[in-house]
Amino acid sequence: VKVKIPFGNKYLDAIFSIPEKKSTYGVILTHGAGGDMNFPHLVSLAAYLASHGVLCLRFTCKGLNIVYRTKAFKAVVEYLKLSDDYKLSGVFLAGRSMGSRAAASVIRHLSQEDDDDFIQGLICLSYPLHRPKLQSELRDEDLLFIRCPVLFVSGSADEMCEKQLLEGVASKMKAPKKIHWIDKANHGMAVKGRTTDDVMEEINAQVFSWLRENIELEHK
């Protein structure tokens, strides 16, 4: 279902992938610095989640400014929270590359503003921990503030997220966290000798099993 989400004096294009049965939890998903919500990895993940009973709302926000992207993501969270059509108990924020930075930033901001538990967790696909070859400047400040569960899915050969550096940041995080390494994948999740579909199957299954664990924890 296509929707337009109000954002300031304009609208963000978004698409709901809706499961057959009513969903109590949802995932909001956005793209990296290039591309839009129709980036193949996002389409694949949204379809997989919906087919496994999890509502997924993915949206496009062009713009390379992280503050702008964060504001847009926040507008989408508010929209879904107030939606009459989809009354959800909670959502997980997810993004690819720059989109995951925006998601982390939103969670940090919202946790300082209100203490409701609508946001259940964060999913970072190819989190861009540093610029290529600039390992000394880590983008970890939001991650260290977050308290909700976090899943990282990163390539072990990601030129924007060196393995030891992400493991170091994770060890300092106060949130429950898990890192799933895609062996030999680069920032775009390409792996020599494996098809995109094959890699996406691994990513989608990881994301879903982590969601299921965390939704079960919530119910206990």
TrEMBL record:
Pfam families documented for this protein: Abhydrolase_11 (PF20408)
Gene3D superfamilies the record matches: alpha/beta hydrolase (3.40.50.1820)
Domain spans labelled KANL3/Tex30 alpha/beta hydrolase-like: 27-209
The protein's name: TEX30 protein
Record organism: Phaetusa simplex
Native organism taxonomy: Eukaryota, Metazoa, Chordata, Craniata, Vertebrata
Protein's gene: Tex30
